[in-house]
Amino acid sequence: MSKNGKNTAGILAGLLAGAAAGVILGMLYAPEEGKETRKKIKDKAEDLKDQAKNKYGEVSEKVKDQYGNISSTFKETASSVAHTVKDGYDKYKDQIVSKTADVVKDVEAELNDLKK
């Protein structure tokens, strides 16, 4: 995950924890019966859990999308580089073969001249 993604996840976790603590403290100091307060805390905890799951899903999808985009871009770039290298190799290979053939002919001619 990127550094930005870690920061976002940390901020999200901090906000959820702060909200949960605020809700719980508010309910504990509210002038209601314990049973009612516990029910509200439980309900609010369920709501916060659902919100956290939703946010996790959203962040997870964004990360997957970004990974897919980066992966796709990398594959395209790697393919392009591979084709460029192959084209360059083919070009220089043909030149080397041609030069080698010329050198072989020159050497053969020199050997023939030496044999005479």
UniProtKB/TrEMBL annotation:
<feature type="transmembrane region" description="Helical">
    <location>
        <begin position="12"/>
        <end position="30"/>
    </location>
</feature>
<protein>
    <submittedName>
        <fullName>YtxH domain-containing protein</fullName>
    </submittedName>
</protein>
<dbReference type="InterPro" id="IPR024623">
    <property type="entry name" value="YtxH"/>
</dbReference>
<keyword id="KW-0812">Transmembrane</keyword>
<dbReference type="InterPro" id="IPR052928">
    <property type="entry name" value="Desiccation-related_membrane"/>
</dbReference>
<keyword id="KW-0472">Membrane</keyword>
<keyword id="KW-1133">Transmembrane helix</keyword>
<dbReference type="Pfam" id="PF12732">
    <property type="entry name" value="YtxH"/>
</dbReference>
